[in-house]
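README: folding subset

This subset contains proteins for which both the sequence and a predicted structure token string are available. Records are stored as plain text. Below is the entry for Acetyltransferase (GNAT) family protein (376 residues), shown exactly as it appears on disk.
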Amino acid sequence: MGSLHGVFRSDEPAIGDRVVVRRILPDTPGHLSDVIGHVISVDPLQIRPQSVGGFVSDAPVIEIPPQQVKILKKLSPRRIRNSDIRALEHATARAFPGIEHRWVGPWLLRAGDGVTERSNSAAPLGPTAAFEQVPLAEICEFYESYELPARILIPERIGNPVLRRLTAIERAGGAGGSEGGSGAGAFGGSWRLGPEIIVMVRDLLGGVEAEDEELSALLHKLREEQQGIRFQIDDQPDDEWLSLYHFRGKPLPTKALELLRTRIEGQMAFGRLVNEAGETLAITRGTLTRGGFEDPCDADDPLLLGYSAVEVTPQWRRRGLGTRLGAEMMAWGAACGAAQVYLQVIASNKAGIGLYHNLGFREHHRHRYAEQITSE
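--- output ---
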């Protein structure tokens, strides 16, 4: 790979993006300065410095000539602490624990169906993971014992030790390989980097639907437009629900489907939209877990709603059912006391990102998976 730059947000910044610009100060050779803010114009490059927390400000716009730009990099829309990234990834891990899992220091190793990354990857969830050596040998041995390729979750920032380790492997091996943008690549011919995945969040206000005026108004509008279609939520999915779900466009094997309904460290539920004839039109899986490192039941840690396994039957797509399903699940989560909802979407899925933006979601952070390439 050769460099940590370009692993996340390698696409060109656009108007409205939050960026950091490292620039050469005029008339002061050798001196550099960072400007962090939002892009007002791309050509010429104009940045409005951010306010506290990464929010848009009304500060005067700074125009930066191209000859002064040393580095231009996209950032997350808001300032996010490393502990916030860990908490969200930990809540996700509790929602997708796999069949077998164990801790190696600050790393959680999970083995499941061998298909989905979330149930079959090693994750740096402990607060010391950023400062300790990556237990690569133990990770590889764990997955070898289950006859699975080793797979590592790499959240941005807190996953930098993994990137450094795999970069060192590439350099030591002297192998080539390419890795760019949101596509896949290889580390020294032995590790492959998967696509960028965006973790998005939305705050849930008040703990009950009625106190979230934005959500309540959206639901009222959608229910009026889609009369005759009702929302149903169950503790377990039936065969019809399971038959509708696909992972990245492909049906899941029976073992993987069973994992979706396996007990987790929290609460799970399976939502669907049903018409008057009793036909299921759309499905999703919701989980309620906490992101604290020590105790999965500690009430001091916020309850988080995870929203995944979204599927709309082909003949009912482009009718607003995906939006309706998301709004209904958020209302359910809010009524259960969830403070925030999160989901994951591949960075290249512009339609999905647009739908979730319309539901009030914003980008929290990004992650990728590195998978060991095994010889045949």
